[in-house]
Amino acid sequence: MNGAKVPLPALAATTTLTPDPGSLIAFLSPGNPLAFLRDGDGIIGIGEALRLDFSGPTRIVDAAAAWRRLVAASTVADAVQLPGSGLVAFGSFAFADASAAVSMLIVPAVIVGRRDGVSWVTRVSEAPIDIAPVGLPFATSFAPGDMSPKAYAAAVAIAVHRISAGAASKVVLARDLVGEIPVGADLRLPISRLSAAYPDTFTFALDGLIGSSPETLVRVAGSTVTARVLAGTAPRGDDAAADADAESAIANSPKDRAEHAFARASVISALESHASGVSASAPPFPLALPNLWHLASDITGTLTDGSSSLDLVAVLHPTAAVAGAPTDAALAMISELEPFDRGRYAGPVGWVGANGDGEWAVALRCAQVEGTTVLALAGAGIVADSDPARELAETTLKFQPIVAAFA
């Protein structure tokens, strides 16, 4: 259903407390999982009560408006009153305005959630809460897709030349890998591996897009808005001493700090028109993930205009962390130098509640499953002193989570 154009139904959502269900991943559909989890908590969806599709430059604005109309027409009985309870829609949006990929909001028939030791079930329409038997393990081998490693290094070199000539300050370029999975593969298996290996990230699944993102695009809880910006990457060391050296190196790297500054400034600028007291952790701090270091900044503020989390997603996307700066120049270079449609890679993914609260990540460390094909993308931020070989190596590091999850 195109949510921007058609009348919306009135839904009735009822949330009740439930005993701890254990692993939320176990309740997912093996072939069409719907989840947004972190450290074992979060929400999963069963079935679909309503799906709204969007496309084009106004896709996120249209989704925010449709969600407000849907909530106004619906009734919500929420005995839990925690983030993720009540009427909730999962959402995922294409990176580019001209993408052929469909953006969407999905209201599940049933939502099972857990947060801070409290568990609940929300029913919007009837659907059984079953646990399907775990499918057979499978292994996936990935190979270069439309952009080979050699072609990627060449594209980085072109971008560096243009940045040095003043065409942009930063551009994020991605490359792709393609793999095959068996017919009927149980997608809960790679989701479980991602969730276990990267518990501090957002593990998500929506319409075949599966991943674990370390980057919070925006989180809204009442009047409080937060974001975590990641830009600047280095591999972890092989031992404690080497790892400490790697941490110190990224914290003091002029290249990584310059790349990070563009991303951080773009988020602060976008939020300042909707929130007061917007501030960032200073200086950016090294954030350790199992396989790499990132430079990170946590940003906080207080909403002043009643914006929903989806409204803020529309303002923030795309940040300099996944596009570059200035935005228009970077997007033009991405369109020219990347020989593929990014789809929903690097787009917003998360959930929005009836009161406008929500959690949204940037769809990174992910893959799109279409039938038996798995398409993974990973990118790196290119600035004037970027080295093509280093940037290629960075994308290899960023592919590791999804390659390991499907292997």
Give me the secondary-structure topology.
Layout (H helix, E strand, L loop, with lengths): L11 E6 L17 E4 L2 E6 L3 E5 L4 H15 L1 E4 L9 E5 L10 E5 L2 E6 L2 E6 L18 E3 L4 H16 L5 E11 L7 H10 L4 E5 L2 E5 L2 E6 L2 E12 L4 H12 L2 H19 L2 E6 L4 E4 L3 E12 L5 H8 L7 E2 L1 H11 L10 E6 L4 E5 L3 E5 L2 E10 L5 H19 L1
Parallel strand pairs: 1-5
Antiparallel strand pairs: 1-9, 2-3, 2-12, 3-8, 4-7, 6-7, 6-20, 8-9, 10-11, 11-19, 11-23, 12-13, 13-22, 14-15, 14-21, 15-18, 16-18, 17-18, 20-21, 22-23
Task: Estimate what percentage of residues fall within beta strands.
Answer: 25-35%
Indicate the radius of gyration in whole angstroms.
20 Å
Provide the residue-averaged pLDDT.
Answer: 94
Largest sheet: 13 strands, mixed
Kindly identify the CATH topology: Anthranilate synthase
The CATH class label is: Alpha Beta
Provide the CATH superfamily.
Anthranilate synthase
Shape: globular
Q: What is the helical fraction, as a range of percent?
A: 25-40%
> Could you tell me how far the N terminus lies from the C terminus, measured between alpha carbons in angstroms?
35 Å
Secondary-structure arrangement, i.e. CATH architecture: 4-Layer Sandwich
Q: Which runs of at least 5 residues are low in confidence (pLDDT < 50)?
A: none
Query: What is the count of structural domains?
Result: 1
**Structural class designation:** alpha+beta
- Helices, by number, come to 8
How many beta-strand elements?
A: 23
